[in-house]
Design goal:
Layout: H1 3-11, H2 13-29, E1 32-36, E2 39-43, H3 45-58, H4 68-95, H5 97-103, H6 105-109, H7 116-127, H8 133-138, H9 144-153, H10 159-189, H11 194-201, H12 206-219, H13 224-265, H14 270-282
Antiparallel strand pairs: 1-2
Helix pairs in contact: 2-3, 4-9, 7-13, 9-10, 10-12, 11-12, 11-13, 12-13
């Protein structure tokens, strides 16, 4: 990071102080668990932070945080925070390398299942009118390592950066609830083996994994230990090798499909429609 960027970050000390205080408050609240029929839904401090910061950023006429200067510098601060997280993931993955080898190819290759987000979600995003934002939204499940990659490759102020942050925020807000309900349904209404469902729970997010594993352990109490172990290992592998799948497969594939599908099913913006109408009138 250049010296000018460091000075800009220091200049935004008010925003950093406010966010630090909000973080302390959120950590003090802690994890809130809401019991449901087959497990529980967990609300983590990260969720409180995002909601409180959003309220303060939109608050009028008092503008505590959310100025243009704050927004411009926030993407650089995000990269710093995620870099520390990625370093931790690398250390943990290296320490667990023997367990990764023993897990077998099925557990390792299940990460390729995340490519389904591209084939299912990209066409829908284009039909809704998203442009390059669709690439950021759908190339992965949009967790911290994926944000770090997009921030480094495209920048957080790019359409791809805005797209992946949409996925990250929505995933944080409703991801645990959705996966918890989905796991409950699959465990009781489908013939999938409990251990295969356990592996599917490890999407690369601790909160989502916990929310989806709980119903499985409740439904199959005799296999609770195995379910927890497989889900935890799957989550570790998804975090460790998921970034490589993103770099070498998912992002290039999503870009390729975007170029092919956008001219066919993409919705034109108002500016493009107006330009076409003007050209037709001139003809």
């Amino acid at each position: 990071m250049s010296e000018s960027n460091i000075k800009n970050i220091i200049r935004c000390w008010k925003m950093i102080l406010v966010v630090f205080i909000i973080t302390l408050i959120s950590e003090k609240i802690g994890v809130i668990k809401i019991p449901i029929a087959s497990g529980s839904i967990m609300f983590l401090p990260l969720l409180y932070c995002m909601i409180i910061c959003l309220i303060l950023a939109l608050l009028k006429p008092i503008k505590i945080i959310g100025s243009k200067e704050d927004c411009d510098i926030s993407d650089k601060i995000v990269v710093i925070g995620i870099a520390v997280f990625c370093a931790k993931v690398g250390v943990n993955s290296g320490a667990a390398i023997e367990s990764v080898i023993l897990a077998g190819p099925a557990l390792i290759l299940q990460e390729l299942g995340n490519l389904g987000t591209i084939f299912l979600a990209l066409p829908i995003a284009l039909l809704f009118g998203f442009k390059r934002e669709a690439v950021g939204m759908t190339h992965s499940i949009g967790r911290e390592p994926n944000i770090a990659y997009i921030a480094e490759k495209c920048g957080m102020n790019s359409p791809e950066g805005r797209g992946i942050m949409i996925t990250y925020v929505v995933g944080t807000l409703v991801g645990s609830i959705f996966l918890g309900a989905l796991a409950s349904f699959l465990a009781t209404a489908t013939p999938f083996h409990p251990l295969s469902l356990a592996m599917a729970c490890g999407v690369g997010s601790g909160s989502m994994m916990a929310a989806s594993v709980a119903p499985l352990m409740e439904t199959f109490p005799q296999m609770a230990t195995e379910i927890s172990a497989y889900a935890g290992m799957s989550n570790t592998l998804s975090t460790a090798d998921g970034i490589f799948v993103t770099i070498f497969i998912a992002y290039p594939l999503c870009n390729f499909l975007y170029k092919k599908l956008e001219p066919i099913i993409g919705r034109k913006s108002k500016a493009e429609i107006k330009l076409v109408e003007e050209v037709q009138e001139n003809e």
